[in-house]
Specification:
Layout lengths: L1 E2 L15 E2 L4 E5 L8 E6 L4 E7 L2 E6 L4 E6 L3 E14 L7 E12 L1
Antiparallel strand pairs: 1-9, 2-3, 3-4, 4-5, 5-6, 6-8, 7-8, 8-9
């Protein structure tokens, strides 16, 4: 991710914080709200949401702001999304920022 704040690293899936109810799935990478990079991917049959954070910075993008796809197999979930011009926010910084998100992930059971 580039722009008002940057993240360029691999972040492990947080299996304890990742859940699915059969229709909606939440994949948490890292710890939400942590000073270290973290991300949350929400997936339902109709939409995808991506939130990327580092410390107090957060950027959240819905399916309308992104292009990409998720592939689910019996043992893995793979995804790649590109979300340009996403609004970013840090409550300690006046105004709003912008970031470009390039997000790829792989999880295996």
């Amino acid at each position: 991710m580039t722009g008002s704040f940057q993240v360029n690293q691999d972040v492990a899936v947080n299996a304890q914080a990742s859940i699915s109810d059969g229709e909606m799935t939440w994949l948490q990478f890292g710890a939400s709200g942590a000073e270290t990079p973290n991300a949350l991917v929400t997936v339902s049959p109709d939409e995808v949401g991506i939130a990327v954070g580092r410390g107090k910075w957060i950027a959240t993008a819905g399916a309308e702001a992104c292009t990409g796809k998720i592939v689910v197999t019996g043992v893995s979930v793979l995804g790649r999304y590109s979300c340009p011009g996403v609004t970013a926010h840090n409550p300690g910084v006046p105004g709003l920022g912008k970031v470009d998100i390039e997000f790829a992930f792989t999880t295996r059971s």
